[in-house]
Task: structure prediction
Amino acid sequence: MMMAELWLHYAVPILLALLLARGLWALVAVELCARWLLDNARRAPVAADEDGPWLVVLLPMLREQALAPETVAAFTALEYPRERAVVVAITTEREENARRRDRDRLPELVAISRLTEAQLRGTFPRARCGDVADEVNAAPKEKRLPLLTELYDAEPTTRETVAALAEEQIAVGLRLVHLHQPDTGGRKAGQLNYAVDHLDEILSPLGWHDDNGADNTFLCVYDADAIPDVRTLNSFAETATRHRALTGRPPSLIQQQRLPLLGRRPFPPGATGLFLAGEWLYQLRRSLGIELARIRLTQWLTTTQVPSTIRTLLRPMIYGVGCGMTVHLPTLRTLGGFPEPMEDLGTGHRLSLLGADIAPATVTVLDEPYTEPRGLTNLHALAFLTSARPDRHASAVAHLPSALTRIGKALLVFREWADEVAWVAGAPLIATAVVSAYWAGPLCSALALTGVLLHGPVLTARIIRLAPALHAAVVPYKSRIAATPSPTRGRRAALVASSPAQPFIRLAGPWRMFFRRITGHATAFGKTER
Result:
């Protein structure tokens, strides 16, 4: 009885007040950050001149032969002095080795009575899997293996595709450099670090020298499915120049916001597609209301006269996003390179713990939302695994000078732990409080209803309305870029109605990982197939 009274009279009102405060903050943060991006999109960044920063665009690629031509075209078309920037596509021998192993699996595949698109994932580019499956299924049994082998051998590798693009490039736009990494293990971070080790080879044809050029050099990291605003590099240069004028030093990190508004593939039908579309909106909400909001707060704390106590209490942990993450070269060298397993979250956490200067870019980059559950659950599990140990990031940079006090670092670590606890336990706990509000009294019932509406339907409806404007604000390298389809009236109503359940969808990855570890099964984090 005592526990029930404590829960209803104390815990429930506190949890519901937190839900209401969180809903209000999310609504305000999303609105302010969206307005900031849209206002900045209406003006062109100052064009960089021959003294602008050196910018190296890094495109690590693994099984991206289908997307590579479009990606290379988009990035080499970026507006910037050709003698001050370069685009680097990094392929890897891991793909070649996997290709040789996969060739040995072809007899197993043709033995399946009816091949499906899912069974060919990773063996062929995703865009080709359906056509290959249909062609093989239509062939006589005795011809299926020769046909599948012929199709497999005819498929170019990413290395071959990028090498051809590098040879065929014309003297317009930015120069493309192709690097091929040996199979040394690791993930995306390994490919990026391989490129950093070859900067002399990449930049020396432009007259760059490490001894006098490193301090004015930035590395711009992207995913291979991204389509940037053509003003991106000028925006980076303008942001770096403005930050240097305000503080006397370059920013350690410039983060461009990734908006999942690129509609190359539709969401699947039914409930799965509904919740994946809901996750698309949740990703957009997070990009605006958490990631950009935190970076803008960090920049404000850095560039204004704020008492050190307030700065310590307010300074947030930054989540780097590896699609539009631009790092100052000397800073990266101080960190010892991009960290595994997630180069973006790790870099953001480590720079946060050093009290580094972090600034937002004024234009955005488009990439694809997740349209299959497996890739989404893998992302959430890996992101949780990387974020859940901020103490390890603190240990990794403990030997480096930091602008933060020991208390400031400890606050960041404990704040991140609180975020992770809220991730895996917050939704069930709040849901229990919302259900209990009926017995806790009319005030709690009103708090519960208002908090749920603000945190779910109201904010979701607003983001649906903002999405077309945010997509249209991107200046493309060509006349038209596919956008995520605007939901029909019925689908919009379903998304709004199902939005309170969306936090539970984000639990699937971490909880699946916990279950597999408890039962003694390793969790594999494979590449997201496009």
Q: What stands out?
A: The first strand starts at residue 54 and ends at 60. Residues 2-41 form the longest helix (40 residues).
